[in-house]
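ERR on first pass: missing label on line 2. Operator R.T. fixed the label and resubmitted. Corrected input:
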Amino acid sequence: MLPAMLEALIFDVDGTLADTERDGHRIAFNAAFAEAGLAWHWDEQLYGELLAVTGGKERMRFYAERHDRNFLQQPDLDACIKALHATKTRHYLALLAAGGIPLQSGVARLLREAQGAGLRLAIATTTTPENVAALLPAELLALFETVGAGDTVTHKKPAPDIYDWVLRELDLPPAACLAIEDSANGLKASLAAGLPTLVTESEYTRDHDFSGALAVLSDLGEAGRPCQVRRGDMHGKRFVDVDLLRTWHRHSIR
Ligand code: XBP
Ligand code: MG
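pass 2 clean. output:
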């Protein structure tokens, strides 16, 4: 059997397309807590620890279990967390609308290049779908044929479910795809789905364990702004382009 050709790229969102956590999601969570009259405040360091739990609703429940057990006593707890999360999403969307969060270096270029080279594009994220649409300019959002996000699956990353869902939508085997992730939980999910995975770090993930990644880079880089290589072979390139992705992919499926 011939080895699979690279046919699609599957992107994570938070930390990969843009560094959204510290100055985006975290601020929105705190605004929602204040609006609800909760005495919760997630500072930068605490938020870094809470990121071990993916998904905003799951993260809030995890926090309450450790820091505010009274909160858990209310009879309509699930509905309350859902409402609190809807408030958080409203604040996050307002924050993006007010100025946005810039995309990571090389993201817009690589998306356009990949589409021009005939690669299919998809998203696999734990964040809420509206957040994806608000983060990306319309021109770039339109390049993605499949967006797997939020509660589409029950088990969020590090479970492989969102990647499995996206692969079913694309009707492709994992060996025909390459994932791009920024966190250990994301990498666990993509590897468990059988996907060769490139890691570009984000602010909160620099010390994560990225064993099993094709390469670990500071970002995708640009011609005039090469990426820093933490691990992996750039095959003479100074930034990530479609040609380099095809080379890594070929090596990974041998
Ligand atoms: C990152 C996450 C998300 C966001 C918050 O997901 O874990 O939970 O922090 O988003 P990924 P919601 O890196 O997979 O994109 O509050 O909408 O859940
Ligand atoms: Mg991420």
